[in-house]
Structure formats: C-alpha cells, structure tokens
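Q: Convert this sequence to structure tokens.
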Amino acid sequence: MTVTEYRTPAGPVTAELTEKRSRFIASMTPVADAAAASEFIASVKSEHRDARHNVYAYALKDGRTIRYSDDGEPQGTAGQPILKVISSFDVCDCAIVVTRYFGGILLGTGGLQRAYSAAARLSLERAEIVHMKLHRRAVISCGYELYGSIASLIGGCGGIINDSVFAESVQIDVSIPHDLAEHFAKQVYSATSGGIMPEYAGEVYCRVSV
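A:
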C-alpha cells in the first residue's frame, strides 16, 4: 500500500555526548531508500574507522524496511535502542549511526542502552522534523487569461506550482495533493468550460505545513 504522508528529518544532524569517558557521536540523516541508507552508514564508518563501534539503525516509510546492527556491542544494547528512538519520534526515511569511542570504563548492558538511546534522541531533538505528503504532478497548458484563475485553484487545493513557463501559452508544472487531485481536475475543467482537463503523470512527495 502506498504511503500518503509521513514525517522525516529535514536534513542531517550530528550530536555528541560523553558517558564515563566513552564518546557517543550520533550522525543522523534523512534517506530515500535502503541504498541511500547503506551509503550513509558506510560513509560514517569510513570517517570513524578508528572507533570501537559504529552502531546503526534505519527505518523507511514503507513500514517494512527496518534494519539495525549492534556492530559488536552486546546483543540488544545498541541497534535496537536506536531503532526504538526513531519509532518514538514517529519518523521514517531516517538513518542514525552512533559511533562509540571507548573510554576505558565498561558501561554494562543497561548503561549502553541508555547511552545509545540518549545519543540518538539528542540528534532527533536537534533536527527539524517535516511533514511530507504524496502529490500528483501535471503540466497544464493554458492561455494567459486563464493563468490567474488556475493558479488560484491550485492554491485552494494546497497545491504547489513548481514552475511556470510563459511563451505563446503558459505551461504550469504543478503538484496537487493526492487526495485532492481528482477534485482539482474537475474544478479546472469547470472553470475553463471544459477546455482543460489536467492529466497527471507521476507522483512525488512534497513538504507541507501542518
């Protein structure tokens, strides 16, 4: 089933904390798919190749792609706690790698769970969380005299004008919320006395205000 809306970080964030001389560096970023998540994880591991552990977790918006790794820490003390933090913030398309530089003092299983969770939570607390919604895209061709009324209909439906090209006619590249796409098309058809019926081609997730 297609996901129609979700929450995700707007951009990458790094956060750090120290627990009993061990440094925990949380690197967080939005990711579009598993390949992007894997690439991000590999880049953090390369940057911190001298660290004792590079633990990670990520979750995608399909609700099925969920991955985590303890990277040598005791089972259940690192990757899963990070994943639980991602879930608690109700975000997806999100990857977090927490790098640990060992400080010489053992933390125990409970201490590790708390430290990895705290680092991951700190990164998401510092992030801007945005709301994404599925839109349908169309290019509408109209005369100059109709541009204003069509633009008004786009705004009324919460749509987004991606681009407008003014030549012999106006080409409007528009994204309309998926759940209002048919309603918008009927409005345009009515407003142009049947002269224009938007034809949708493709879907895209757009950032919206809530």
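The two ends are 23 Å apart (CA to CA).
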